[in-house]
Amino acid sequence: METENRSRELTTTDRILRAFERLQHIDRRVMYALLAVVVAVPLIWNFKQPVVVTWPVQGAYDTIEKMPADKLAIIDIVWDSGTVAESRPQTEALIRHLMLRNKKFAIVAFMPQGNKLAYDSAKRIGSELGKEYGKDWIHWGYRPGGAMIQFMMGLGRDIPGTVKSDIEGKPVTSYPIMKGIKSIKNGDVGVIAEVTPSGTLDYWIAYVYGSYRTPLIYCPTAVMAPEGYNPLDAGQIKGMLTGMKGAAEYESLLGRQDFATRAAGALSTSHLLIIVLIIAGNIGYISSRRRRSES
Amino acid sequence: MNTLTSWLSNSSITQSIALWLAVGATLGIYSILYKENPIYRLVEHMYIGAAAGYYAYIGWAQTLKPLWWDRITDGQWVWIFALIGGSMFYFIYSQKHVWISRIIFGGLLGLVAGAAFKGFAGLNVDRIEASFKPLWGVPAPNIINNIFAMVILLTVMIYFFFSFEHKTKLHRAPANLGRWFLMFAFGAMFGSTVMARMSLLIGRVHFLLADWLPIAK
Fold this sequence. Notes:
The complex is a heterodimer. By secondary structure, chain A is of the alpha/beta class. In chain A, 56% of the residues lie in helices and 11% in strands. Chain A has two domains: 2-45 and 265-294, no CATH class; 55-257, Rossmann fold (3-Layer(aba) Sandwich). Chain A has helices spanning 2-23, 28-44, 55-66, 84-100, 112-129, 148-157, 159-163, 201-212, 229-233, 243-253, 259-294; strands at residues 72-77, 104-109, 137-142, 189-196, 216-220, 239-240. Chain A has a six-stranded parallel β-sheet with strand order 3-2-1-4-5-6, with helices on both faces. In chain A, helix 9 links the parallel strand 5 (216-220) and strand 6. In chain A, helix 4 (84-100) packs parallel to helix 10 (243-253) and helix 6 runs parallel beside helix 8. Chain A is elongated, with a radius of gyration of 25 Å. Helix content of chain B is 78%, strand content 0%. Chain B has helices at residues 2-10, 12-30, 38-73, 80-88, 98-130, 140-159, 169-212. In chain B, helix 6 (140-159) crosses helix 7 (169-212). Chain B contains seven helices and no strands. By secondary structure, chain B is mainly α. At the A-B interface, helix 2, helix 4, helix 5, helix 6 and helix 8 of A face helix 3, helix 5 and helix 7 of B.
């Protein structure tokens, strides 16, 4: 009797394990469809979730808060349409913060598409907050990524001489915002924020922070974020916004609920699905391996 | 001309066309998830073509023209040498005159090596300094964190120490521990990669639901 019950229990466990094993062979398109649903539902019903501000984001926020109003901030755009969902909310959060605090800033882009996308964002937020191009902010335009190091070193010595013209092709010295701005060496730049999906932060650290100790803020995509913790720990960057999550945290510091905050719910549900699939897949894998070795 | 450009960029018809094109491109690209198909290929080639064309235009309009061409036409003829220097790179395609490209490549390598030498100190000195962490005189939680950081740093460095074979237990044990720590780091990096990819998907789904349909905020 006891043996019979035991074999029935084993059969039930076996059945569950086999269900997990079958999950290993599920059509990937089913998973894509599931993913589309778990992403779409929170966006449609606007699932809200608490946003906890982490210390790297707080560090970035405080660095901009502390920047003297007579200095210029530089927002370096190294992203394009491929990472727009992560990089644009970060860029817009920084732009909004600088504009709200009446701090001057310049945008420079090393990617052609990001050049226009960041310009459009700044124009839109600027008109919303009543900020004037050339007086409150400026866009230095696109510079080829291959000349990035030379450009950075040039900014260190002579900003107007290196930049020359803005996105509209006019000399940068013709704008009031550039009055008195000479060089990073002269202490005219208060903060440099880099928004990027690539590893170009090291150039700013090597050629600008290393020489002039200008505070840096790093806004990577989530893929690149682990690489940011070394310079963060070494004090080479003052703050970091990790992908869309970092942008959501920054939005909460600004008291806003823009795209990143609205998307945070979808980010959580999609992660939950991935975690469930990884666990189910691993149970199935271990079970099938055990069965193979037993047979 | 300016009026036409302004009308084109502000007209609701143009904006509708742009929206529908973007929707078609998004759905076309995602159609690869179902299976390989000609629509996906078409949209992919359209994207590559448009991006390359835009790149060429921006490169000319915002870099070459204001910083080079306009200077030459303003009488600063010395900038013509930039064209000569730049053209020298293309001699790499000629077997007979490849030596010309070597001159400019040599100069470029020298410049890059010099810049890299300068950059090394700026990049690494602070990081090396930061890896020496205080193990006393700081709050207890920091001491635990710092000990943890030290153990990870040393064991991972031992793992990458290939000058002699890890034969004895004294070498093998910390190297194995270092490998485990590396695995944890790779796991964290993979987690971040998932977050990045999900964010991109969310961006596109949000575009479809909010800008096109619109049923989301």
